[in-house]
Fold each of these.
Amino acid sequence: MNEENDSVTRDGSIGDETDTGEAETTDADTLHAGEVETADADTLHAGVTAFLREADAVYDEYEQGYLDPDAALARLDSALSDLRDAEAAFDDTE
């Protein structure tokens, strides 16, 4: 890969980059309002999914005796914090 002219694009492909000094915009950079809402909803959905997976894992590990109550609560607290952050990010876009 020629470091002067080639760059890795957002999708991971390698493209030829010519430096004109101007910022280039592509279709991927231009988001319509509906696409932004979908991206934000996807982020919220990912946050909910991550929380549920972590909560299930904590309960399973606790029931099997791998976690003490304090460690289980700490992990659940961290997962709740992450979920609240995802929800707050979603609310900020509305």
Amino acid sequence: MKDDSQAGEPDTERYDTERVPANEIEHLLYWGWTIIANAGEGDWTRESPAWQKAAHDWRERFHAYLDVNTRHG
């Protein structure tokens, strides 16, 4: 359990990625992206500027992950 001094830090006690197959992690990342992409009914301008920045940053990191970890062509 976390105390207030750890607020905002990932709860590594709850998630052990060594037990989750890589394809499941990729599925969860993609699922997360579909939720983010469809926020505001797909119109991100309906969301706060802070939310838009966070979503944009997440998208950039997700796409970078895909570029490195998937085969093209």
